[in-house]
């Protein structure tokens, strides 16, 4: 269920207090507009709370005679780690075996954005996208593979800059049929 739009004025005031707590002077020239900039940025980066897959699909589910696999790969994604509020980013591949219904191609990316623009963990994001595609299409099977870099692991803590996390969610025939899963994984990485 969509949530209300965040109050950017309240967020800006909290950011101003945060700056003070960090030992900064929010009234100095370089920080004067920072609280409102951060508030606008956070509202944008978490706009997925105001969306649902149904809303972003906007009826773009089309009847077709196709029962073939559809794969969209190299979809850029950006999200915020719910543990540290630092970004993670990478690429996603989505595939499904149509059962007479297909999505408008841009809607696959919009479903990803709907969930990525929330405070997230990559594992849940991957599953949410797969489940939303399955529900929207009634597909025989759905697969989602995501590879991301996490700034919470790169900038702080263990500081491993070259690490990449890979997650996958396989539903229906993608989970039960090794040949279907392999075909998807092969198409998801082709030309890479």
Protein topology:
Layout: H1 8-21, H2 34-45, H3 53-57, E1 61-63, E2 69-81, E3 87-97, E4 101-103, H4 105-116, E5 119-120, H5 122-137, E6 141-150, H6 151-154, E7 165-172, H7 173-176, H8 178-189
Parallel strand pairs: 2-5
Antiparallel strand pairs: 1-4, 2-3, 3-6, 6-7
Model description:
It is a single chain. By secondary structure, this protein is α+β, with helices and mostly antiparallel strands. The chain folds into two domains: 8-45, GTP cyclohydrolase I, N-terminal domain (GTP Cyclohydrolase I, Chain A, domain 1, Orthogonal Bundle), CATH 1.10.286; 52-189, GTP cyclohydrolase I, C-terminal domain/NADPH-dependent 7-cyano-7-deazaguanine reductase, N-terminal domain (GTP Cyclohydrolase I, domain 2, 2-Layer Sandwich), CATH 3.30.1130. It has helices at 8-21, 34-45, 53-57, 105-116, 122-137, 151-154, 173-176, 178-189, and strands at residues 61-63, 69-81, 87-97, 101-103, 119-120, 141-150, 165-172. A five-stranded mixed beta sheet has the order 5-2-3-6-7. A two-stranded antiparallel ribbon has the order 1-4. Helix 1 (8-21) packs across helix 2 (34-45) and helix 4 runs antiparallel to helix 5 (122-137). The protein starts with 7 loop residues before the first helix and ends with a helix. The mean pLDDT is 94.
Q: Can you summarize this structure?
A:
With 192 residues, this protein is α+β, with helices and mostly antiparallel strands. The protein is built from eight helices and seven strands. It has helices at 8-21, 34-45, 53-57, 105-116, 122-137, 151-154, 173-176, 178-189; strands at 61-63, 69-81, 87-97, 101-103, 119-120, 141-150, 165-172.
């Amino acid at each position: 269920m969509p949530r209300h739009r965040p109050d950017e004025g309240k967020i800006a005031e909290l950011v101003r207090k945060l700056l003070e707590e960090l030992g900064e002077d929010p009234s100095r020239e370089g920080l004067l507009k920072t609280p409102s900039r951060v508030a606008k940025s956070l509202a944008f980066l978490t706009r997925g709370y105001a969306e649902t897959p149904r809303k972003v699909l906007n009826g773009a589910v089309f009847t077709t005679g196709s029962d073939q696999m559809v794969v969209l790969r190299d979809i850029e994604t950006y999200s915020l780690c719910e543990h540290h509020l630092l970004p993670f980013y990478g690429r996603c591949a989505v595939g499904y075996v149509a059962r007479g219904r297909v999505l408008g191609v841009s809607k696959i990316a919009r479903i990803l954005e709907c969930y990525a623009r929330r405070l997230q963990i990559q594992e849940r994001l991957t599953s949410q996208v797969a489940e939303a595609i399955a529900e929207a299409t009634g597909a025989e099977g759905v697969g989602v593979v995501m590879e991301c870099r996490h700034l919470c692991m790169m900038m702080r803590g263990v500081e491993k800059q070259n690490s990449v996390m890979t997650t996958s969610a396989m539903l229906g025939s993608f989970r039960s049929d090794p040949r279907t899963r392999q075909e998807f994984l092969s198409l998801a990485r082709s030309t890479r």
